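Course assignment 3, question 2. Fill in each field.
Student: A.L.
Task: Predict the tertiary structure for the chain below.
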Amino acid sequence: MSENVTTTIDVRPIPPPQKHSTIFQTFDALAPGQSFILINDHDPKPLYYQFASEMPGKFTWEYLEQGPQVWRVQIGRPAST
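Answer field:
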């Protein structure tokens, strides 16, 4: 993935009702070509489906670590959106 990583957010200590809004706020702050690392305690596949539904083709998603205790995903805004 070629995006420049700007930050890492660990959502494990965030209350569940606030996790997705925090993640989307972080994504919205990205400039084209930037990304962030998401750290979670489970596979964030539902989040992927939310991104795919709301922003098809306007995000990148790459697993960097896939459990069993920690998941790390690089989520980015492509330079060409």
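Instructor remarks: The radius of gyration is 12 Å. The mean pLDDT is 93.
Grade: pending
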